[in-house]
C-alpha cells in the first residue's frame, strides 16, 4: 500500500488516506522484508509527526497533519522524489520474504 500510495500522490496522500491507518504495521513490514531504503524514507516521513506518532484514526491524523505546516510538505515532497528513484527492488524483497516464509502463507 505504501509504495502504491506514494506513487499515486506522495507521502501526503499516504497519510491523508487509509494507508496512514497502518503506519506502525508498514514500518514493521518493511523491516520484515529487509527494506533499507524504503524503510528509511518512510521513517523520515513519519518523523514529521509530533514525536513520530501517526494517529490511526483518519480524522485525528488529518487534524494533526494540518497543524504540521509547510515544512512537512516540503520534506515529504523531497522524500517522494527519493522514493520515485526506486533504488531498492521492493518486489524482489517481497519475493524473497515469501520464499523464506512460505509456510506462513499456506
Walk me through the structure.
This protein is mostly helical and 106 residues long. The longest helix is centred in the N-terminal third of the chain and has 15 residues. The model has no long low-confidence stretch (mean pLDDT 94).
Keywords:
single chain; 106 residues; mainly alpha; 6 helices; 68% helix; 0% strand
Overall pLDDT: 94
- Bin the strand percentage: under 5%
Q: Helical element count?
A: 6
SS class: mainly alpha
Q: How are helices and strands ordered from N to C?
A: HHHHHH
Instruction: Give the termini separation.
Output: 22 Å
**Residue share in helix:** 55-70%
**How would you sum up the major sheet?**
none
Low-confidence stretches: none
Overall spatial form: globular
Computed over alpha carbons, the radius of gyration is 14 Å
What's the β-strand tally?
Answer: 0
Layout of SSEs?
Elements: H1 2-16, H2 23-32, H3 37-46, H4 58-68, H5 70-84, H6 90-100
Helix pairs in contact: 1-5, 2-3, 3-5
Amino acid at each position: 500500500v505504501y509504495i502504491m500510495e506514494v506513487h499515486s500522490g506522495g507521502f501526503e496522500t499516504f497519510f491523508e488516506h487509509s494507508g496512514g491507518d497502518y503506519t506502525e504495521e508498514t514500518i514493521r513490514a518493511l523491516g520484515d522484508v529487509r527494506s533499507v531504503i524504503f524503510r528509511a524514507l518512510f521513517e523520515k516521513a513519519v518523523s514529521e509527526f509530533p514525536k513520530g506518532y501517526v494517529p490511526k484514526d483518519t480524522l485525528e491524523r488529518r487534524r494533526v497533519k494540518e497543524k504540521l505546516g509547510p515544512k512537512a510538505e516540503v520534506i515529504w515532497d523531497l522524500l517522494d522524489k527519493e522514493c520515485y528513484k526506486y533504488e531498492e527492488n521492493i518486489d524482489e524483497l517481497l519475493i524473497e520474504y515469501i520464499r523464506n516464509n512460505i509456510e506462513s502463507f499456506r
